[in-house]
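We were asked to recover a plausible sequence for a given structure. The inputs and outputs are reproduced exactly as logged, with field labels preserved.

PROBLEM: sequence recovery
POSITIONS: 351
GIVEN STRUCTURE:
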């Protein structure tokens, strides 16, 4: 990454002693840590092929930051640094949209959940975030990614890929395709939720994987990060993605599917952490869908990876041939393992 003069001057960054360290983490945006003498920053380039109106992200973050500042001044929230012309994001023609965020000293992120405590802390942080914003006028948030967790549409895109996708890949994916079709009831339940007035639209993060929480050296959660997909949504999106990414000791990239597992203690930690904050917010109908949340997100992610594979990786890209096929297979195994343990997990939450 070459830091252009425009970028450096927009943020009044000097050039002496400057170091840029790429952070290879998310699948969508590009991220770097910038070290300048004693300060560090996080620089991100927003993928505007995907986030078509990046200004909407900046708008949402500003609204939420102002609300939290007013109503919960002690809450630790990281706002982007403004440019010298007081903008939340810097648009450089032909280069894209950038934002600069202060790096929180003595904080770190993790990529895999290795202790139940980490799952508890993360779930608590995401729960707290939604709870503190329960009085926020959620309808004012802009839609940064239309239909992001619209499972009906994801299924439709999958069906279209079955018609128009790559022929060879379609042949090779027969088993996965059959599996997705066989479990279409996950879509039906989602559609019932949309019609169910008990389900409340809340300020939803929509990307609650573990690397979106900052931890301190004692593994206490400090704050949530990556607010690109902050939008009105249902709690199943946030709880579901926690289940998708904290329950198994290996992530979606793992090719050895025998390593995929549902760790009950980690489920308990997600429940305890999230409910410690959201226990009084969720109504009975929502609580009853706590485990469904995991099925919803894992199934949707399997569909998204498989659809992208069939469409020749136009969304996620692929670092090696068949990467999205592997990811889809991985998520299908995770889904199956969750079904196997569903009864057990239900008993745990009924206690
Ligand atoms: C993408 O870029 P990242 O890792 O934050 C995707 C999520 C997926 C995730 C799977 C905007 O998130 O929905 O769950 O990959 N984000 C978008 O790893 O599509
Ligand atoms: Mg993200």
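RECOVERED SEQUENCE:
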């Amino acid at each position: 990454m070459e830091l252009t003069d425009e970028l450096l001057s927009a943020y009044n960054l000097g050039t002496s002693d400057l170091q840029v360290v790429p952070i290879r983490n998310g699948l969508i945006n590009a991220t770097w840590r910038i070290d300048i003498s004693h300060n560090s920053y996080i620089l991100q380039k927003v993928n505007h092929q995907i986030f078509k109106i990046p200004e909407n992200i900046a708008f949402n973050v500003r609204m939420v930051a102002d609300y939290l500042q007013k109503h919960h001044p002690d809450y630790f929230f990281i706002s982007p640094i403004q440019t010298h012309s007081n903008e939340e994001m810097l648009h450089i023609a032909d280069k894209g949209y950038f934002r600069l965020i202060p790096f929180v000293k003595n904080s770190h992120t993790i990529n895999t959940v290795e202790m139940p405590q980490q799952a508890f802390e993360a779930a608590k942080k995401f729960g707290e975030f939604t709870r503190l914003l329960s009085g926020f006028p959620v309808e004012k948030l802009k839609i940064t990614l239309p239909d992001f967790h619209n499972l009906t549409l994801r299924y439709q895109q999958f069906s279209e890929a079955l018609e128009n996708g790559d022929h060879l890949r379609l042949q090779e994916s027969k088993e996965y395709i059959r599996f997705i079709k066989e479990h279409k009831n996950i879509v039906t339940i989602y559609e019932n939720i949309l019609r169910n007035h008990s389900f409340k639209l809340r300020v939803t993060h929509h990307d609650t994987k573990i690397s979106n929480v900052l931890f301190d050296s004692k593994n206490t959660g400090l704050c949530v990060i990556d607010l690109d997909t902050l939008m009105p949504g249902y709690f199943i999106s946030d709880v579901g993605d926690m289940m998708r990414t904290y329950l198994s000791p290996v992530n979606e990239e793992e090719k050895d599917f025998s390593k995929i597992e549902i760790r009950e203690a980690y489920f308990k930690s997600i429940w305890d952490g999230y409910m410690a904050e959201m226990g009084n917010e969720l109504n009975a109908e929502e609580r009853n869908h706590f485990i469904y949340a995991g099925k919803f997100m894992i199934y949707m992610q399997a569909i998204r990876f498989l659809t992208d594979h069939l469409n020749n990786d136009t969304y996620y890209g692929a670092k090696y041939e068949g990467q999205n096929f592997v990811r889809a297979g991985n998520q299908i195994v995770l889904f199956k393992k969750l079904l196997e343990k569903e009864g057990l997990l239900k008993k745990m939450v009924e206690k």
